[in-house]
Each structure stands twice: as structure tokens, then as C-alpha cells.
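Q: Start with the shorter request: fold the first protein.
A: Done. Sequence, then structure:
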Amino acid sequence: MSRINWKTVFISTFIHEVHLAKAKLESKGIRSFLVDEHLNTTIGTAFIEGYKLNVDVEDFEDARTILSFFV
């Protein structure tokens, strides 16, 4: 999968919530990508923009449905 085809499905200012969402998606067979995890910690943009979890655009609707029960 190319990063160009990825779309943000979940945003949180708490990194542990993003990791839990990522694990939930992976348990359902959906690959996800945590955007700039370490960069956000270093420069502090997570406090403003939040940590972003991306999925392939083809999995976006399924991922959103799965995470609607998670959040």
C-alpha cells in the first residue's frame, strides 16, 4: 500500500487511545499507520492536532464502523 492512498480514520491527543484503535483494526485484518508518532512527541504537535491513525481508503468505511463501537 502506498501512503498516498491512506486516509485518517481516528484522531486523539492520547497516544494510548490510538494504539488501542490500531490494535482493534489489526484484529479485524485492517492495516493502519500511525502518522508521525515520534515527531509529534518531539515537537509537541499532538497537543494541537492529535495523533492520527490512517487506513487505506478502501478500508476506511469498515474501519470507521469498527471504531464507532470502540470509541
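Q: Next, the second protein, separately.
A: Sequence, then structure:
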Amino acid sequence: MWILCGGLSVAFCIIGWIMMPKKKIVSQWASVCSLAFVSLTLLMEYRMVLQWVIKEDWSAMMDVVPHMFSFCTGYVIILLLANAVLMGVIYTKTKDL
């Protein structure tokens, strides 16, 4: 499930960048959806780890969690910056009009 949410967040971010010169409102909504799916991705990751704790599958946690932390950190930083820049560009374009 977290892979689906992560893919949707990246897709919405790309849609926001593609639609930026054409339709500002669609670009803003795509950016908001991207940020929402970033948070859902992190919640799904947390849920996966929680299930491993409930099942006491410590070996799965030791194998996956250190690598997933690095991946999730990079993922969140990149998408937050991309969406922040997108919203900043949209704001400055609407402010100039």
C-alpha cells in the first residue's frame, strides 16, 4: 500500500509541474494532493512496521527499517522541496498579475 501512495505522490508532483504554466489551480491542487500522499506513504510505512512489532518479527525490522529510513528521508525532503518551489513559483506568478 505504501508503494501505491508513494507512486501517487510522485505522480501528483509531476502533474503539478507539468500543469504549472497552463492552469494554476490544477497545479495547486496537484501539489496539495502530492503532499497528502506523502503523509499517507509515511503512515503506511509506520503501519507496516507496527504489524511487524505485533507479530514480533524482529528480523524483518532489522533488515528493512534502516534502509527504509534513509529512503523515506530522501523521499520526503525531495518532494517537500519540489512542492514548496512549485507553490512559490505559482504564488509569485499570481502576485505579479
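Q: Describe the second briefly.
A: The radius of gyration is 17 Å. The mean pLDDT is 90.
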